[in-house]
Each structure stands twice: as structure tokens, then as C-alpha cells.
Automatic annotation (TrEMBL):
Name of the protein: Non-ribosomal peptide synthetase
GO function terms (MF aspect): phosphopantetheine binding
Coiled coil: none
Alphabetical GO biological process terms: amino acid activation for nonribosomal peptide biosynthetic process; secondary metabolite biosynthetic process
Cellular component terms (Gene Ontology): cytosol
Domain of life: Bacteria
Keyword Metal-binding attributed: no
Gene3D superfamilies from the UniProt entry: N-terminal domain of ligase-like
Signal peptide stretch: none
Keywords assigned: Phosphopantetheine, Phosphoprotein
Xref: InterPro entries: AMP-dep_synth/lig_dom (IPR000873), ANL_N_sf (IPR042099)
Matches recorded under SUPFAM superfamilies: Acetyl-CoA synthetase-like
Keyword Phosphoprotein listed: yes
Length: 243
């Protein structure tokens, strides 16, 4: 996937204004300690790097610790880590290992992404007294994150609202907008869209299509994800269109 620096810059500006700065301010304005638990070949590794660019401390977790939920919990407590970015599946394992139990240090922020969040995990993190949970959604083809929310925003799992300068289209098979509450395929627009797939012109043409609602020459990315608008104006993930 070929992405532009402009897309990453847009993501950073969104996160710095809407996520990083408010989270640090809520913690008294101190410099955060963020843990990078993803390998660098996984696009979500940019989450921790953006915190470092914003002036916070980044701890790069080695493979031995990263693969052991109990070791992660021990590292968080020893180093007093403020932020973890985890897939929901891994978050469940780390929580089972005691991340948010007992009287020891707990992270102030827990980011989720990479897969759908289940009801039980959503409620568990909503009820956590000292940790704020965030859910992020986005394909690599749109530079890591395109939708986000705090778990406190909704009593059930949603993927939220778009990041800055990102357009959301929920369309039927004829590329017509669907009403609130009706399922449709999620299409994305904006500066975070990738150029396409390296050496795969046919696939690029299939997934990156003309945006019939935008200015001439603008494109949108067909995610293949089935979603719907809620009455609250946020996006709820339902599954894949090819399921």
C-alpha cells in the first residue's frame, strides 16, 4: 500500500488535537509514558510514534515481553506506563492477567484497534475507574485511523466519528447513500487515502473509485466493511460485505 506523508500529517494533527493533548491535560499536563507493543510492520505501530513526535516518552517493548500478557502487566507497573495500544483480543488477555486489578499502577489510556470490540470488553473498560478506553478504526489504505471514539461515548461498541478532513459515505450497491440505521458499505474520502497498491493497478482501480459526491477528480476507498449510521451520528461496525 502506497501512502503519502500528507496522510500521516493529517492523522498526527487530528490525534494531537483530539486525543494526545486532551489525554495529557487530563493527567495534569505531565509527559506520558507510551508503550509500543506492535511490531513495526503493523501500521498501528504509528500510534506510539505519534505520541513520541508530540513530545512524550516511548517505550519499545521487546518480543519476549510483548508476547507474554503477565510480563506486559509487570512492565506497565514497574515503568508506570500511561498508555497501551492493543488489539481487542490481546487486551482481553492482558486484562485477564490483572492489568486493571489490585492497587498497583494502572495505565491512564487504553487504545483498541485492529479488530472489532466485543460487548464484554467494551463494558469492562467503560466501567474501569482510572483508565479511559478509546476505539480506533481504519484500514492501511486510509493511513491507520479514520474513525475513533471514547468508549464512554456509547453504551455499545461503535467505531465513532471520522478524524479531521475525512469523509464518510455509507452506500448501497448502487453507490446511493442509505438512511440512518440501514446497513451499507463504508467508503472513505480525504487526504489520508493511499495512492493505491504497488504494482497492482487492477486492484487499485477496483478499491479506489471516483467519488460521485465530491469535487471532480476526488476518490473514495471501498473498505468492504458493512456499517450503519446510528441515531447519535456515529458509525457502528457490523461485519464484512463478503461474509
Amino acid at each position: 500500500v502506497l501512502t503519502d506523508h500528507a496522510g500521516l500529517l493529517n492523522l498526527y494533527r487530528n490525534h494531537e488535537a483530539e486525543f494526545i493533548r486532551p489525554a495529557a491535560r487530563a493527567a495534569g499536563g505531565r509527559r506520558f509514558k507510551a508503550a509500543l507493543t506492535a511490531v513495526f510492520s503493523f501500521d498501528t505501530s504509528w500510534e506510539g510514534l505519534l505520541w513520541m513526535v508530540a513530545g512524550h516518552q516511548l517505550h519499545v517493548i521487546d518480543d519476549e515481553v510483548r508476547r507474554d500478557p503477565e510480563a506486559i502487566v509487570g512492565y506497565v507497573r514497574k515503568e508506570r506506563i500511561d498508555l497501551l495500544d492493543l488489539t481487542p483480543t490481546y487486551a482481553e488477555q492482558v486484562l485477564a492477567a490483572g492489568l486493571l486489578t489490585g492497587d498497583d499502577h494502572r495505565p491512564a489510556v487504553l487504545m483498541l484497534g485492529g479488530e472489532a470490540v466485543g460487548e464484554a470488553l467494551w463494558q469492562q473498560l467503560r466501567d474501569a475507574p482510572d483508565t479511559v478506553g478509546y476505539n480506533f478504526y481504519g484500514p492501511t489504505e486510509a493511513t491507520v485511523d479514520t474513525l475513533w471514539c471514547t468508549l464512554a461515548d456509547s453504551p455499545r461498541p461503535v467505531v465513532g466519528r471520522p478524524v479531521h478532513n475525512t469523509g464518510i459515505r455509507v452506500l448501497d450497491r448502487r453507490l446511493r447513500p442509505v438512511p440512518v440505521g440501514v446497513a451499507g458499505e463504508l467508503h472513505l474520502t480525504g487526504p489520508q487515502l493511499a495512492r493505491g497498491y504497488l504494482g497492482r493497478a487492477a486492484l487499485t482501480a477496483e478499491r479506489f473509485v471516483a467519488d460521485p459526491f465530491g469535487e471532480p477528480g476526488t476518490r473514495m476507498y471501498r473498505t468492504g466493511d458493512l456499517v450503519r449510521w446510528t441515531a447519535d451520528g456515529v458509525i457502528e461496525y457490523l461485519g464484512r460485505t463478503d461474509d
